[in-house]
Amino acid sequence: MTEQLQYKPGLEDIVASETSISYLDVEQEEIVIRGYDLIELAQKKTFLETAYLLIYGRLPDAMEKHHFQQNISSQTVLHPIIQTILTNLPKTTHPMDAIRTCLSALAGYDEALHDRTADCQKARAVRLLGQLPAIVAGSYHILTKNAAISPNQNKPYTENFLAMLTGRIPTQDEITAFDQTLTLYSEHELPNSTFAARVIASTHSDMYGAFTGAISSLKGDLHGGANEAVMHMLLEGKSIEGFLALIEQKLAAKEKMMGFGHRVYMRKIDPRATLLKKTLKTLTESKGDTTLYDMCVAGEAYMKEKKNLYPNLDYYAAPIYYVLGIPISLYTPIFFAARASGLAAHVIEQHMHNRIFRPRVRYLGPRGLKVSNDDGKTEE
Prior knowledge:
The protein has 16 helices and three strands. The protein has helices at 38-44, 47-56, 62-73, 80-88, 95-106, 118-145, 157-166, 172-185, 192-201, 207-218, 226-237, 240-252, 271-287, 291-307, 313-323, 331-352, and strands spanning 22-25, 30-33, 36-37. A three-stranded antiparallel β-sheet has the order 1-2-3. Helix 6 (118-145) runs parallel beside helix 7.
């Protein structure tokens, strides 16, 4: 009887998968990625090294890292058909919707689309990692300026990605800060978008389909879209006083405060936010203007005092992207591009150890209703 099955809204605390990819250890305040602490990875390794770890299950040695970088760089040029698609989309299209369309289209150009072997899947993941920076940058520059920024295949992945987003050559401090955000966004156990990807993959659908479902999930402001909402709120506040007044106003109106709280961490700070708080401080000090950092710190203290809520990753990632000169509408697409390596790992794992997802429901509707005849009389 389904009435006897356990039900929790939003599947909260329900274990839906077994995985060797990642785990959120709330008690130890550790985000485990293939056995490593994500925060330590973000401090000591690059995003590409973490992406390699996620896809191949181990950190690369120097030669493997070099070949991985070369392989990805060789695939960063925007596919001509994808450029045509972006050119012909309505100019009002949000970049997340544009990227979703492009990902779906890419499936048609994969000659081994139905090959689910691990080696083919890993090669597909690398190809997507290479394509996504150009697609993400193009989803903004082509739609708003009718011109794509070409990648520099001789530059490292993160430097090239940031340059394509901003249209300028970044400094080393900027590259380091951006790379750190990519690493921290790369994998986070089983959030809504990753779960969506695994559900789709469990039907034996391909990686492009799983990614398309994941990006649709990530677009929502209760998930990836929160970073854009945070930045708009900071800009509306303008100053510490204005920001705190805005928070107070939103709390009084019982509005959800974007950038605060997390389904898993609950009453603890997101460890990723703790690291990015330091990164934002360093970055704003190097720019000679700590206004955004000061606003964020004041907002964090206010929310802790009033609601006992703590920042999540988006709260500090948003102002970092703003200081780097990245258009706000690209914040969530960057999240997706960074999460691609984690998503690919989950799709591969799901295909290797598959059982299709098919949960049940608790029915709350009526029963026993009878269908009437055309004359309105109920059959006896």
